[in-house]
Design brief:
With about 325 residues, the chain is of the alpha/beta class. About 30% of the residues lie in helices and about 15% in strands.
Length: about 325
């Protein structure tokens, strides 16, 4: 027993001396001891995690892809042309062909339904709002009481405008010549059309666009542009619409807001044909990639999701919440 007692005491002594030696003379490790305070080792919360370089967006979000900021987002919605007719190689649309080669094209982008009006509601409210026809004017019983992109944009402190070509006066909610209310979604939302001052200030004739683009201060953060029934390719040819775009798009892209700030312009179509709702969608502007094509699936909810992602806006419905945002079309900050 005396022998075993001596062995046990010897082992304890070795352990005590070895432990003390390690504690006082161990190598200093910055990773494991970055939280060391007064000789007390504090666990490092970043231990074992990789460091990711990221940029912080205007509203505080962390964006590892460095895609923010994007200051202005414009949408031009054209009419009733399948993607097969807007390819970037057609003699009928020379301006669009050049724009596609210069900027970005989504080849696998779809309208969400037929006919026109539900698509306009989808891209601005995240739902067709149970609308299945081109009910127009809205006073015919088509007004919907839902939250829309204008609401969330305005709530974030940003400005917005709907520019409707051939609309005779601000917030005009009746068909007039080549102006069709079914292509102006904002006169269908109850909280806009029933608020006359708000509607008149934001739903304006297209003729006001050029003046608003003259300075960054007067350019809205978000704009939805509705060409008239001829220039949107609904009643007139693709070539007619292409010529209209050749006059309007440079005015946007060369404006102070698009040349001095990172800004985006989406050009899309409401719907394709009866058998295939695939439509071309072009992403242009100072924040858009150049010479880029994607065949990833997108639809009208994707543009809405893109705006919400870039500006940290809450989703309007499950449709835009689950849609894939088109962030791959945006060039990283500093490029």
């Amino acid at each position: 027993m005396k022998i075993w007692r001596k062995v046990l005491i010897g082992l304890i002594g070795v352990l005590l001396v070895g432990g003390a030696t390690y504690f006082f003379f161990r190598p200093y490790n910055h990773a494991s001891d970055s939280g060391n305070i007064s000789g007390i080792s504090v666990p490092n919360s970043n231990s074992g995690k990789s460091s990711v370089s990221s940029s912080s967006g205007a509203n505080g979000s962390v964006n590892p892809n460095k895609i923010q900021p994007v200051t202005h987002i414009f949408i031009i919605m054209d009419e009733n042309q399948p993607a097969s007719l807007i390819t970037g190689n057609s003699p009928n649309d020379p301006y669009l062909s050049g724009l596609i080669k210069q900027y970005s094209l989504a080849t696998n982008y779809f309208g969400v339904t037929h006919p026109s009006l539900p698509n306009y509601l989808a891209i601005t409210s995240g739902s067709t709002d149970n609308t299945t026809t081109d009910c127009n004017p809205p006073s015919a019983g088509c007004i919907v009481n839902v939250k829309n992109i204008a609401d969330t944009v305005q709530a974030s402190g940003r400005t917005w405008k709907e520019y409707a070509e051939s609309m005779p006066s601000n917030c005009y909610a009746y068909n007039y010549g080549n102006y069709a209310t079914k292509h102006n979604p904002f006169v269908y939302y109850a909280d806009i059309i029933n608020n006359k001052a708000r509607c008149a200030a934001n739903v304006v004739p297209f003729s006001q666009l050029q003046g608003n683009l003259s300075s960054v201060k007067t350019t809205p953060d978000f704009a939805f542009i509705t060409p008239n029934l001829c220039n949107d390719m609904h009643n007139c040819s693709i070539n007619t619409g292409d010529y209209w775009l050749s006059q309007v798009v440079p005015m946007i892209l060369h404006s102070p807001a698009f040349t001095t700030q990172r800004s985006l312009l989406f050009i899309t179509w409401d719907e394709g044909d009866a058998t295939n709702n695939n439509v071309a969608t072009i992403v242009a502007g100072s924040a858009a990639k150049q010479g880029y094509t994607s065949n990833m699936f997108f639809d009208h909810y994707s543009i809405l999701s893109t705006i919400e992602s870039l500006w940290n806006l809450p989703p309007l419905t499950q449709n835009d919440k689950s849609a894939t945002p088109m962030l791959d079309f945006i060039k990283p900050t500093g490029n």
